[in-house]
Amino acid sequence: MAKRPSYLQFANDETPPPLSTAILAFQHSAIVLINLVYVVIITKALNLSAADQFAMLSTTLLVCGLGTLLQAKFASKLLIVFHPNPIYIPLAIAAGLTAGPGGIAVLLLTAGIVQFVFGSLVRRLRVFFPPEVCGVVVIMLGVSLLPGTLRGIVTQSVDKSFLHVENAGLVVALVTLAVASAGSVWLKGMARFFSLLLGCVAGMIVAYALGVWQPGDAKTGLDVPAFALPSIHLPGLTFDMGLVYLAVVAALVNVVDELGVLIGTERLDDADWRRPNFTTMSKGLQASGVFTALSGLLGGTAVGMSSANLTLAYATGVTSRAVAMAAGGLLMAVAFVPLALKHVLSLPDAVVAGILFYAACYFIVSGAELALSRMLSPRRALVIGLSVGAGVLLQSVPALTTRFAGTSIEHVLAPMTFATIVAIVLNLVMRIGIRQQERMVFSAAGEDSDADEIMQTLGERWGMHRQTGARAAAAMRETLDLLGGIAKGPIDCTISYNELVLAMRFVYDGRPLVLPGRAPDIDELTDSPDGVLRMGGWILRKLSDYSTVAQSGGRQQVQLAFEC
User: Where are the transmembrane segments (predicted)?
Assistant: First the structure.
């Protein structure tokens, strides 16, 4: 059973009151509408006509809404909201310049298929994503958001020789950050739902007072009616092998990014989270791939998951998927109101900067907590330290990658992607010789057994997750108590650990232990001589993830396993 975090107001399977759901859906949708600027960047770079710009904009928004609603209902069933995906911006521009809208369609179709395939295999790839690697991904998600926080605050000289801090923008960003942070800390109950929205409103008020923003300012220059059906321009397909190669690279990069968002979202519902639910991860990645491909075929641009909505879920304490479904419906509705999009896109850059900084700080802390969730061993310390160090180095010294600008290698050398690749490779290398084993012998009387001390010692030596060690200690204690009444002679115990599974095997002479599938009722406990023994066997089954009894060489065996 998941342990409910103290900050959680409404969990994934709970439904907030209608008004609260509407407010939260509006906040999540507002973040998506802000990020529609990514679509505009692509349309301007390709010099598309006003009609084609509007078509790509409304199509992408429509797919975002549809994808958000359906994934919450049928796929990951998490509070995941789809956004225009910034990872694909340079590739979409390159594809559009090379092969037109048909090239973008091929790029996204290929990327969607690759991501769907990876999603179907993610369960088998668990060894690549232990908590250390996942933690590095989440940390670098936060680090990668930091440069974006400078937009609207810092301007660069024409010759790029120096940076200039815009005082007004800095004030707006700080006010947005301060109000949002204060709201998430000191507001109580339903009032916390307004924290980021209050931050945005406060930032806009300050921006207006300082004369750096006017209500209704539009960044896109699109001339659109107030209401209209979503405009869809089917692009056709223009095949180019180079686009396929870039799509594969981009899809793998995006999978790493979105895996961090899925993990972060899942963790919000469980204070004792230890490992990803790979069924949920798989369905989430597959859904993202499907809707990216659909958006490309309909003439939109790539969609994907955003850490900003995860931040909002954390700040409000609401992870209900009902909010995601409401947000999806709202996004689809807004696709019929293009004039609203024009005004939403006028949000000041400095306000966005404050929100991004808030999100970045959360992910850095959350990722560190995840990476250090197991007892630290020298192997894990190297995986975490070297990976994050490599990513931060590339982030702080971008000149290291300038020679690869414009190539697919440039995306591999993105700080978050490179740090993740380093973490995966180091994790695999560090697994050499990682299997640990300890053998001990206990007397049937049990006077020489101290399960808590044994598991604490082994946990520190092997770098075991604390929760796993506690469960194993309780199971060892229960097993030795049970076997003390039926074993004839000493009890051999072998404990093995490989970072994925902790296994314990008890071998003894005597009667076999029974592990019933249900707890004995009151009559069995009082009338049957084996009632207490059966109850103990049922408790063992509940304490462990896997449990079996067997006979080998004339001796009885009890085997227990715990997923780590």
Answer: 20-42, 54-75, 87-118, 127-148, 168-187, 194-213, 322-345, 351-372, 381-400, 412-430
